[in-house]
Amino acid sequence: MNIMTEKTLEEVVSSEMNKPNEAIKMRGDKVIVHYGEKQALFGVDLNIREHQVTALIGPSGCGKSTFLRCLNRMNDTIDSARVGGKITLDNEDIYDPKIDVVELRARVGMVFQKPNPFPKSIYENVAYGPKIHGLTRSKAELDAVVESSLKKAALWNEVKDRLTESGTGLSGGQQQRLCIARAIAVSPEVILMDEPCSALDPIATAKVEELIDELRENYTIVIVTHSMQQAARVSQRTAMFHLGYLVEEGPTDKMFTNPDDKRTQDYITGRFG
Ligand SMILES: Nc1ncnc2c1ncn2[C@@H]1O[C@H](COP(=O)(O)OP(=O)(O)OP(=O)(O)O)[C@@H](O)[C@H]1O
């Protein structure tokens, strides 16, 4: 009898632990993008789950970066780009005219393919965002934000004695973690990463991948990657794009072992792309 009760409890606990986090942080609804006459996305419906890493995969030119840039309105900076459909953050339409784009980009931060620290000190690179957003009231508070952001980006120990040195003097992998610290410093809710490891060597890549896994606890992450191994290592959900369409989306382990669509199967096994 006791054994039965224990087993039932164990089952309950285990099913609770294995329950996927269903909270939707961002919702893409029939997202369409044109660059001038050329259509790059054809009605993409894709939800981004909170505290999960979503990997966007697919052959070159399929629209992964275009979709990623829609999520914090970076496409606004491209003159020819027109975005249609609807994208929400916590159920709020991010293309609503009332939305302050600067504030949106603080909530939905971005890390680019090539590390792009400002030609300023390591300290200033991280302090810049909190300063312009008025997030801190004293030098001591700003120091604390810089330190905690560098710690969260797993860079503090390597730079704590050289905060006044230029950010551009760091190694590529350190520069990318500095850019992640810079994004974290304004307390984003979502971090977009566009091939963040493509300019890094395998050791720096492993560090950034480890970091991505740790960041998931506090942030929602969307990453564009060409590396199937990377998608499999860091993400919980994977979305496969092809020729501007979302082919399918699902749990990463399923997408890599038993995808529904032949195009996903062909892509992950290297038959095209
Ligand atoms: N700024 C732009 N102006 C015009 N066309 C663009 C622009 N950016 C992207 N495109 C086009 O939109 C389509 C999708 O490009 P996008 O960069 O989103 O694809 P991707 O899947 O991220 O590719 P890659 O893996 O090569 O980075 C491509 O046909 C591309 O040529």
From TrEMBL:
Belongs to the ABC transporter superfamily. Keywords: ATP-binding, Nucleotide-binding, Phosphate transport, Transport. SUPFAM superfamilies: P-loop containing nucleoside triphosphate hydrolases (SSF52540). It comes from Aminobacter aminovorans (Chelatobacter heintzii). SMART domains: AAA. Pfam families: ABC_tran (PF00005). Residues 26-268 form the ABC transporter domain. This is Phosphate ABC transporter ATP-binding protein. InterPro entries: AAA+_ATPase, ABC_transporter-like_ATP-bd, ABC_transporter-like_CS, P-loop_NTPase, PstB-like. One of its GO terms (biological process) is phosphate ion transmembrane transport. GO terms for molecular function: ATP binding; ATP hydrolysis activity; phosphate transmembrane transporter activity. GO terms for cellular component: membrane.
